[in-house]
Each structure stands twice: as C-alpha cells, then as structure tokens.
Write a structure and sequence with these properties.
Radius of gyration: 18 Å
Mean pLDDT: 91
Largest sheet: 6 strands, mixed
Number of helices: 8
Order of helices and strands: HEHEHHEEHEEHHH
Helix content: 40-55%
Distance between the termini: 45 Å
Shape: globular
Low-confidence stretches: 192-201
Length: about 200
C-alpha cells in the first residue's frame, strides 16, 4: 500500500546520513547487535585527520568534499579486497564505521588509510591542506567506543598527523604530535600505544 511505501521511505530517510547517503547512527545501532555477535565480522573505525584544518582554511565546502572522499576511500578499500558483504555508516561527526569480514579487516584498514590520504587546495591554489583517515579494527561497537578503543585510535591519529604534517586540534594534541615527529626525525619509531590517552576527536 501507499502507506507502507511512505513508512519505508520515511524510515530510510530517518536512518540515512543526508550528506554521505549512507546509514547514520540509528541505522548502525539497528544492525550492530547482529554484527557484534558474528565471530566472522568485525568493525573498522575510520576517523578523519585534518577536518578542522581543512574547514578553517578552505571552507566547509572543502570539508564536505573531504568527508565524501573519505566515504569513497572506505568503499574502494573494501571492494578492492574482494569483499561484497559489508555495511558502512556515519555514526556522527567525521567518523565512519564499516563492518567487514574479520579475515580481511587489517588489510582493508591499511588500505583505507592509504586511499584516503590526499591534498585539498583552495580555488586560487594558494593554500593546500592534507586530509586522511586513521583506521582501527574492533570486534564490537562496544570495544570501539571503550576507553581502550578510543586510545588505540587516538594513537594512530597522532602518528598520522605527525607523518602528514597535519596540525593538532589543541595544544595538548599538538605536543603529542611534536613528540612523535621528533622521534620520527631521529629514526626512533614510538612504541605502539605510547601516545594513548589523546583525544580521539579529529
């Protein structure tokens, strides 16, 4: 009936991110229990680095382009791995969550970071800012949202910002980035997790 069609389209609208045309947090929460309980599926949390810098210097249009490119990079990384069974969501802000088969997850996460790294330039060509995603693999959404999960992702974000010259969002984060950059410059790679506890906002 028309009423059923209207209800379905209203429901789809309520569960879709308007900018990226993928599922939002409501859609993710609906399927998360099923995926969390599937031992063959895991989540990749992919969080943007450089969003504030791009928005502040190039405008929100460039920020929107950055978010869309990040979505495309995630989908491309999944498809390049030969995976057709996946679910992608934007739970909020500049974070994307994608559920993928566990066997391919680490490869997909690495490829997401590679494919999402690009430079964004002002229309007159005078200002260029780099944006990228940091991606971590988690068994469940609860693990991704936990303090340890957030610290794990934050550590990857600090490393990415140090490598790509992306500024921190605040003085505390910038101090961590500078410390990692100093270690990179001297050839000492920091131990994994040594920059944990940084804010995961990016």
């Amino acid at each position: 009936s028309d009423a059923e069609v209207d209800h379905r389209s209203a429901q789809r609208l309520a569960e879709t991110d308007p900018l990226l045309d993928i599922g939002n947090v409501r859609a993710m929460n609906k399927v998360a229990p099923q995926i969390d309980n599937d031992p063959n599926m895991v989540w990749i949390s992919a969080d943007a680095n450089g969003m504030k810098d791009i928005n502040d210097n190039l405008g929100h249009g460039a920020g929107d382009e950055f978010l869309k490119n990040n979505r495309d990079a995630v989908i491309q990384a999944v498809k390049e791995s030969g995976v057709s069974n996946y679910h992608i969501f934007r739970p909020g802000g500049d974070e994307l969550m994608v559920a993928v088969p566990k066997a391919k997850a680490e490869d997909i996460a690495n490829q997401i970071e590679n494919l999402s790294t690009r430079d964004y330039t002002s229309p007159d060509g005078s200002v260029t800012k780099r944006g990228t995603l940091s991606a971590s693999v988690f068994d469940t959404t609860k693990e991704a949202e936990s303090q340890d999960g957030q610290a794990q992702l934050a550590s990857r974000k600090i490393m990415a910002k140090a490598v790509h010259g992306i500024p921190g969002r605040n003085a505390e984060e910038q101090g961590l980035i500078d410390a990692v950059r100093g270690q990179l410059d001297t050839g000492e790679a920091p131990a994994a997790g040594s920059v944990g506890g940084a804010p995961a906002a990016g």
